[in-house]
Amino acid sequence: MSGAGATGVGSMPGTSFEEAQRVVLGELSPDVGAMPHLVEVPARGVAAGMVGRTLGLVTDLGADLQPAGWRLTGGPASAGVDHRRARSLLAQDLDVLEELTEGYAGPLKVQVAGPWTLAATVEKPRGDKVLADVGARRDLAQALAEGIGTHVRDVRRRVPGADRLVVQVDEPALAAVVGGRVPTASGFGKHRTIHPPEASEALGWVLDAIAEQGAEPWVHSCAAGTPLELVRGAGARGLSVDLDAVDAAGLDVLAEMLESGGSVALGVVPSTDPTTPPGQRQITERVLRWLDQLGLDPGMLPDGGSGLIVTPTCGLAGATPGWARQALDLSTATARHLRGGE
């Protein structure tokens, strides 16, 4: 039997964190071979979005919200009201998670924005992206690594039954960063390309900080052209991708990850309501064709938590609540088929 499992990418629709977290804990229960995750509910506002939520755990830096987006302000004492709200929301969500997982035993996943997505999104105190300044992007990556270490310790304290803790580092902007496609503040130019050694080093600081806390570092991106070989070389022990966005070189990296005992979270379930919903057999057959294309025997995939993980193609924030629940159910059903179940 293969080690196929299921999980979600991160975000959920609606405005109630507790309701969304209950859905995830129910649909992605370890009892059905799945891994639940700490949900993100971005419809609550910018402080609850991917970037705001991650800035909320970077306690060494202050930030505030400008018309153009998030901007660093200096030290933690200079944090603006929206940054303080992001920290408060994260703390409240963790309180709810702790309550809902009392007595829980099994794996758990949490998500954070990665250093390059932050650098391409957040501005320096005097404007323009952090990406434009080598010192600023180094400081932000190192502060993120420190903040994630503290976050992991906090999650472990709150959910002591989490026997496997995965930290998914979301890097949707990484392909644009290394490809020199991130627009400057004026919109008339592009930031310089970040070369692979620097990109790998900063990402490695974050992934190492995760591993040092005994957690498992994954990297997720549903963007086309994500340099998966770079990501794996930086220390990722799991890769989470949208199958439709992976090129031929990326497929080879995914195969190598599986063969080496790592995890591949494969996005194959639509993340928004489809006109014609696919069935679990249809999705299963697609995954089996992909494994056959790579020359991998599904019966030989690693068991015991590693291996192939079925997910939606991206976050579910844009789905209706009904489809979000169904997408998670399809993910677990597909994993069950891959394990040889009915």
Protein described:
With 342 residues, this protein is of the alpha/beta class. The protein has a single domain, classed as Alpha-Beta Barrel (TIM Barrel), CATH 3.20.20. It contains eleven helices and ten strands. The chain has helices at residues 17-27, 50-55, 81-100, 115-121, 134-158, 174-178, 196-212, 228-233, 248-259, 280-294, 321-338, and strands at 5-7, 34-35, 62-66, 69-74, 106-113, 162-170, 216-221, 238-242, 263-269, 307-312. The protein has an eight-stranded parallel sheet. Helix 8 links the parallel strand 7 and strand 8 (238-242). Helix 1 crosses helix 3 (81-100) and helix 4 (115-121) crosses helix 5. It starts with a strand and ends with a helix. 51% of the residues are buried.
The CATH topology: TIM Barrel
The average pLDDT value, as a whole number, equals 93
Write the CATH architecture name. Alpha-Beta Barrel
- Judging from the principal axes of the Cα atoms, what is the shape? globular
As a percent range, the share of helical residues equals 40-55%
Secondary structure class reads alpha/beta
Query: In the residues, how many domains can be counted?
Result: 1
Task: Give me the number of helical elements.
Answer: 11
Strand element count: 10
In sequence order, what are the helices and strands, one letter per element?
A: EHEHEEHEHHEHHEHEHEHEH
- Strand residue percentage: 15-25%
At the first level of CATH, the class is: Alpha Beta
Which quaternary structure do these chains form? Answer: single chain
Terminal CA distance reads: 13 Å
Instruction: State the strand order across the main sheet.
Output: 2-1-10-9-8-7-6-5
User: Sheet bearing the most strands, described?
Assistant: 8 strands, parallel
Provide the low-confidence segments as ranges.
none
Which value, in Å, is the CA radius of gyration? 19 Å
